[in-house]
Amino acid sequence: MKEYTEYILGLDVAAVISTIIIFLFGNLQAQSAFMLATQLIFVLSTLALALTFLYYVQVGSNNQLLIPGLVIFGIGAAITFFSWFIGGLVALAALLLLLMIKNIDAKERMGLFITYGGFAILAVMPPVAALLSLSFGMSDIILIIVGLALIIVGIIFTLKVRKSVEVINIGFIFLTLAFLFIAPAHELLGIHANGGYGVYDESIVFSATVTFFIFFSNLVLYLWHEKNVLRDIELGYKFLKKGKYSEAYAHFQKAYKDFPDDERVLNGLGLSLMKMGKYNESEEYLRKLTRLYAGNNTYLTNLGNLYFRSGRIDKAIETYQKVLEREPNFYNALNNLARCYMEKGDYEKAREYLEKAIAVDQDKKAAKVNYYFLLTALGMGDEAKRYKAEIGGLVE
User: Fold this and answer.
1) Predicted confidence band at 86 (pLDDT cuts at 50, 70, 90)?
2) CB atoms within 10 A of CB 157
3) Is the pLDDT at 101 greater than 70, yes or no?
4) How large is the angle between the packed helices 199-242 and 263-275, nearest 10 degrees?
5) Is the dihedral of CA 44, 45, 50, 51 positive or negative?
6) Cα–Cα distance, 14 to 78 (Å, whole number)
7) Rounded Cα gap, residues 101 and 54, in angstroms
8) pLDDT at position 196, please?
9) Residues 6 or more apart from 353 whose CB is under 8 A from it?
């Protein structure tokens, strides 16, 4: 879906601009013309919303709320046919769950939540007024001010945090499209409909449009920046493979200025500095990496590799064991933990972990090479020779 980013964002812009144009024209003279324009917004918003959600699902990492969110949304849509008010409330709750499916920074999550709360107030009041036959009054003005204030606070709160940039921008675009969808829905479903947008709808359209373009601009700038930085990241990893560690470090350091929390950049900096023997600097980046991306076993293993290379064997063992607690068959941790025990002279434990690593992946050679050296260290020369012949010249 990410390869279609430009088309999805183009459709999003078309939906938002169509909505704001009809808002600016106000009540079209012919009711049929107004309903036709409203149906156009409805169709564009539906398509944009669906595609943007698919995009949102693909960026970053998800948590367990995706399926419950979709189920609750489906229930809300079904209930709408019997009670538009209850169905709408269920759908709003589902929207919040769907916004929370991404594993994003707590402050960004709070900003998204506050902004959602502001939009939710503006969205809920028209059906409440219709249900209770309430006329517009001072209390409505206060609620509109509160809703708009929450939206402003949520946007400012979020823009101060610059971690999950793509994820949070797409989240806000998805949020604004969802609420822009409500305005035409009120007219088409006859919820507080008056042949034009009421003051609550106008508040949603105005604030959602501003919010959309703030985060749309943010996303476009981020993606443009990312393309330029991606070149440095790719070059950095190419130099790493060639063993040109200082050149690799220079490219990763350049990328770090624009993307200080990017996992690819932090990992590249940590690896290049480690290979250069600058262990203290490497540890700084790798510890930040494992803190920001705590669930990634590869990054935690790289931190263990740093401890091993810098002679902190017990610390390396502790780190590899943390990886294996989470993923018992993680090949690199098994192989590297065996190397630690070989270094300590505990050959039986080393053999145990190497045999497990070889069983996990027969195609990788590192554990097989280490197993040959282990047999040699154990004084099992004949068995070592037979094993060397068996693994086909991996050991010179």
Assistant:
1) confident
2) 17
3) yes
4) 20
5) positive
6) 28
7) 12
8) 58
9) 334, 335, 337, 338, 341
Query: What is the per-residue DSSP string for 282-298?
Result: HHHHHHHHHHHTTT-HH
Q: Which of 263, 264, 272 is nearest to 291 (CA)?
A: 263
Q: Which of 90, 91, 139, 148 is nearest to 118 (CA)?
A: 148
State both tokens at 134. Answer: 């309430």
pTM: 0.62
Q: Indicate whether 225 pLDDT > 80.
A: no
pLDDT at site 324: 94
Residue 192 is predicted with a pLDDT of 57
Cα gap 176→132, rounded to integer Å: 27
Return d(Cα 2, Cα 13) in angstroms, integer.
17
Domain ranges of the chain: 2-61+102-224, 225-390
Angle at the Cα of 208 (from 203 to 214), degrees rounded to 5? 135
pLDDT tens-digit map of 355-387: 899 898 877 888 888 877 888 888 887 776 776
C-beta atoms surrounding 249 within 10 Å: 24
Q: Which of 64, 79, 190 is nearest to 126 (CA)?
A: 190
Beta bridge partners, 102, equal 62
Q: Residue 73 region, left (φ>0) first, then alpha (ψ -120 to 50), else beta?
A: alpha
pLDDT digits (tens, 9 = 90+) for 146-185: 999 999 999 998 888 766 788 889 999 999 999 888 777 7
* Torsion on CA atoms 166, 169, 172, 174, rounded to nearest 10: -50
Distance CA 232, CA 252 (A): 7
The third-level CATH classification (topology) of the domain covering 225-390 is 1.25.40
